[in-house]
Amino acid sequence: MLIKYSLSLSLLLPLLIYASTKPDTFHVERGVTIKAPPEKIFPLINDFHAWNDWTPYNKDPAMKKIYGAATMGKGATYAWEGNQEVGKGEIAITDTAPPGKVGLELHMIEPFEGRNRVVFTLTHQGDATQVTWAMDGKNSFPGKLIGLFMNMDKMIGSDFDKGLENLKAVTEK
């Protein structure tokens, strides 16, 4: 029994040590160019009701959505609860600078607890707008451990790519 325990520990310990060396923060960022002025795109990001037209996170048709008293602009809030694909969480718009920036605080409750900063930046470029969706957060030890087996940048980034493509389609139609 002691040999089995020692063998398991000798295999697990290096993995735990390696995970602990991973960065304490993470950053995910994606962008898309949309053939529209920022003034046309900004309201779709600055209003949680408008998110229904483009967000990649409406993966559960039975998802419960709770909108705050304000759904648009600074102070707007939105909460959701759904299946394991969407989990449970809440998000708030913390600052806006029309038509170039929307800042949000994301609080994921399930499946993993986390608080992250999300920023949409809209940069006018001739007859188009470069829209950037970025998220920054702390990488807890469990997150570091999970990151050894799952590429969080690719996983979250693919959602951002899909959402930005949806936003582009909605805006350009």
Descriptive overview:
With 173 residues, the protein is of the alpha+beta class. It has five helices and seven strands. A seven-stranded antiparallel sheet has the order 1-7-6-5-4-3-2. Helix 1 packs across helix 4 (141-147). The mean pLDDT is 91.
Topology order in helix (H) and strand (E) letters? HEHHEEEEEEHH
Number of helices: 5
Which structural class is indicated by helix and strand composition? alpha+beta
Q: What is the CATH homologous superfamily assignment?
A: START domain
Task: Give me the CATH architecture, please.
Answer: 2-Layer Sandwich
What's the quaternary structure here? single chain
Distance between the termini: 66 Å
Helix content: 25-40%
Tell me the domain tally. Answer: 1
Give the strand order of the largest sheet, numbering strands 1, 2, ... along the chain.
Answer: 1-7-6-5-4-3-2
Overall outline? globular
- Mean of residue pLDDT? 91
Biggest sheet details? 7 strands, antiparallel
- Roughly what fraction of the amino acids lie in strands? 35-45%
Which descriptors apply to this entry?
173 residues; alpha+beta; Alpha-D-Glucose-1,6-Bisphosphate, Chain A, domain 4; 7-stranded antiparallel sheet; 5 helices; 7 strands
Itemize the secondary structure elements and their pairings.
Layout: H1 2-20, E1 25-34, H2 38-46, H3 48-51, E2 64-67, E3 77-81, E4 88-97, E5 101-110, E6 114-125, E7 128-138, H4 141-147, H5 152-172
Helix pairs in contact: 1-4
